[in-house]
Amino acid sequence: MNKVLEPARPPSQAHCAAHPLVGMRGVGKSYGPVRALEAVDFDLASNEIVGLVGHNGAGKSTLMNILAGVVQRTDGDFMLEGTPVARWSAAEAHRHGIRCVFQELSLCANLSPAENTRIVHRGLRGLGWKKRAGALITAALDRIFPGHGIDPHLVVSNLSIAERQMVEIARAYTSTNEPIRCVILDEPTSALGHTATEQLLAHIRRAASDGIASILITHRLNEILAVCNRAVVMVDGGIVAVRSTKGLSRSELVELTGHVEAPRDRQKKDRSTPGRPIVDHRTELAQDKVVLAAPGEIVGFAGLDGHGQRERLRDIYKTMKGGQTPVAYVAGDRGTEGVFGLWSIADNLTIRSLKTLRRGGLISDEASRTLASTWAKKLQVKAPSIDTPILSLSGGNQQKVLFARALASDAAVVFLDDPMRGVDVGTKQEVYRLIRSEAEKGRCFVWYTTELEELTNCDRIYVFREGRAVVELADEAIETGRILEASFGGGNG
Ligand SMILES: Nc1ncnc2c1ncn2[C@@H]1O[C@H](COP(=O)(O)OP(=O)(O)OP(=O)(O)O)[C@@H](O)[C@H]1O
């Protein structure tokens, strides 16, 4: 019979050398009829950085949630340094030094970073606990994200999504004397800008040299190749490949996930001269460019994260909403402003189209279902049916539903607010193609993205600096070097 694991005496060196930190054998997980994981074997050594990659719904978060104790496995064995684990919970995982940064951020929005830190450190009590909790989270933030500027006592709902993600990450690295042995990071950079991403990757490397292993789940494959020792590839609930990242190329990694990446070079397009702008937005600020966008155009917002792109995008959307031109908005922060958690895929997808689904004063069920099925299929939403509750989808599949909601609507202008968070490589390519073909049919897209490479899908971009749109680049001029130069103060602005 399995011995129940007892904490948390440091194991002997010989024991550690003989056993991986984590060992999983034949692990499976079913959600009712959905088989999310099938017979997975997974090992992690101390000090190791492992990258977990795979398409949306491949089972990555499920596997990691089992390790973090928030989901119970239905089959298989799990060992910690060779000792079988029977009962396992989030509290047990924490006690044994396993931390998790969740894809859907887990902070309480009505509490401050300090109070959120207290939630995971029950020892922080008595007089002055808030001050000590504030100091603990600030020290972690300073170590990982120097220059972050986050007030540990400000309520989390007042923080930007990037700041919330930084707090969530930093909290995983706080300790009040208990060990930290492994940190699972599920899409940790999806809301971070370039600088914070680089800071985090450097921190993961430092942590490994201090004996903290990491498991990094990301669709940004360059990050896997930059920091991980091994890449573990999942397809449809199983592990299909384990490769050392030494000498592994990005395209090989993409192929292992079952996709082929299209060439990244900008395709020369025969773009007709744009017509009369459908978006014409100016501000009172000096040297702030007028943002123009015509039907058929894809216009990007670029620049270092937090330089006013998102605010301008929202301003334009709010100005146009309710006006003559129908508009739609795809949020990147799906947790707080995108997904209706209690609704099905179909209801989430069609909510923006109710007007056009009306037949004789009532919403037509048949027309709604046809619209939902068509677009769920176009975006390859992985789910048993369109009636599946949205929260039982993987994160990337929830994001696809938000895309489908906007594209299925009658919107002539679609605003995209860094919308590819957690979307896999294959689907991204499909969405880029869809955006291009919708633009060719006359739709206009205004697209804020923190992924530089994504901007090559645009016809024209505005680079933002210090709250203003300062440089405009078009067609072949849209390339990484020029965007970075403009972001830091060079260029034709
Ligand atoms: N609570 C749940 N109820 C029902 N099915 C679920 C639930 N959670 C996950 N699933 C299903 O399990 C499968 C694996 O999901 P998981 O979130 O592990 O995928 P993933 O690889 O992390 O995807 P992504 O890259 O989109 O985050 C999916 O088919 C998903 O719909």
TrEMBL record:
Keywords: ATP-binding, Nucleotide-binding, Repeat, Sugar transport, Transport
UniProt superkingdom: Bacteria
Family annotation (Pfam families): ABC_tran (PF00005)
GO molecular function, one term: ATP binding
Residue spans crossing the bilayer: none
Annotated ranges, domain ABC transporter: 22-491
Gene3D superfamilies reported in the protein's UniProt record: P-loop containing nucleotide triphosphate hydrolases
SUPFAM superfamilies: P-loop containing nucleoside triphosphate hydrolases (SSF52540)
UniProt-listed InterPro entries: AAA+_ATPase, ABC_carbohydrate_import_ATPase, ABC_transporter-like_ATP-bd, ABC_transporter-like_CS, P-loop_NTPase
Homology family: Belongs to the ABC transporter superfamily.
Name of the protein: Sugar ABC transporter ATP-binding protein
Source organism of this protein record: Jiella pelagia
